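B., you asked whether I could sanity-check this one before it goes into the benchmark set. Here's the sequence:
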Amino acid sequence: MNFKVKDHYFKKAKKEDFLARSVYKLEEIDQKFKVINKGNTVVDFGYHPGSWTQYTSRKVGEDGKVVGIDIRPLNKKLLHIKNITLFEQDIFEVQETSQLGVDHKFDVVISDMAPNTTGIRSVDQDRSLNLVEKVFEVLPVFLKENGNLVIKVFDSNQAQKFLKDQKGLFKQYDFLKPKSTRSISKEFFVIGRGYKA
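And here's what the prediction gave me:
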């Protein structure tokens, strides 16, 4: 199997001091759709290992804030960065943004979350869709009116159907498979802009 793509993005991430190659997926999405702006408050669901959090932290600047939340232990490599706050907990147990040290809803919700994969495609697709459905369920708690969403999805007929049903929640709604996604991967990203809270 040819993983040249991996090598290129993997080396690039190391060189540019990012924690994972997945940062280039968010970068491409952001360049194309302008989802993250200077001064934004952003929450990163399932941030581990943290490359999306790093990118977002650089993008929002010192007046912005990034909250990363994951059930895995805190990634200490991110703790020194001033505009990042990390939480080790289940995002779906958070009832209000004040539990994350923020007194208002977020400008942007990003989620590169994936289930623990089994290698059985149908099981992995179902688990991914389950996470995606839960994220849409909690959006009213986290995302402010006119806010933006970026979320990873494993492609399936059910996922396509569910996502089409959510289209009305946003003024603009796009799907993208970034260039840095491995060719064998079934993942793509949904970009929602202008949330109709």
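One thing to flag: The radius of gyration is 16 Å. Otherwise nothing jumped out at me.
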